[in-house]
Amino acid sequence: MNALITHVIFDLDGVLLDTEKFYTAATQEIAKQYGRSLDWDTKSRMIGRDVRVAAQIVIDALQLPLSIAEYVEQRDRRLRDYFPHAQAMPGAVALTASLRARAIPHAIATSSPSESFGLKMQQHQAWLQQFAAVICGDSAGIRALKPAPDVFLAAAAAMNAPPAHCLVFEDSPAGIQAAKAAGMFVVALTDSVYNPEIYQAADLRISHLGDFNLQDWGLE
């Protein structure tokens, strides 16, 4: 890869933390109340999106007799119990440690609001300290969430990094679209349960963070 990468930006859910299963479980619990079941196609359209957009997607797809506000209230009540138990994704701690050892600045850019972010990171405060910046969906200056590029551009600005020199790790179509809209390079962390076409816009596709080769991107 000929890109000059100087900074790295990570999505949170499904990239650094194994939290997507919590969102899936919460939605399945809600759907089950009405005799419905969440399918992977619908899930793939929800990941990485603003909560109200994701709510409308699942309400329409599963024909749930709920308003957006009712769905979000039920979902968030469940998620608040799940989030403090979030564990790191396989390879995430090792990859960020490698970046730190090479003095490569790295940040987190997530659509999650700061309250949810805090719950998810309760067990990971020492790890959190090594990131140069954290941008949440309700951080100052964020006007639109993924697939808009705002959170990634804000993370780059916080590190004084040109967007063209940033490499983003993402797992969702909306996140990949947002990173590309920001003018950044993207590594997609794939999941075999989804149609592989959702990752097509990424510059690199890997199924495990341990598969990422720093040397290929000039980060050694």
Automatic annotation (TrEMBL):
GO molecular function: phosphatase activity
One Pfam short name: Hydrolase
Biological classification of the source: Bacteria, Pseudomonadati, Pseudomonadota, Gammaproteobacteria, Thiotrichales
Top-rank lineage group of the source organism: Bacteria
Protein source organism: Thioflexithrix psekupsensis
InterPro entries: HAD-like_sf, HAD-SF_hydro_IA, HAD_sf, PGP-like_dom2
The protein's name: HAD family hydrolase
SUPFAM superfamilies registered for this protein in UniProt: HAD-like
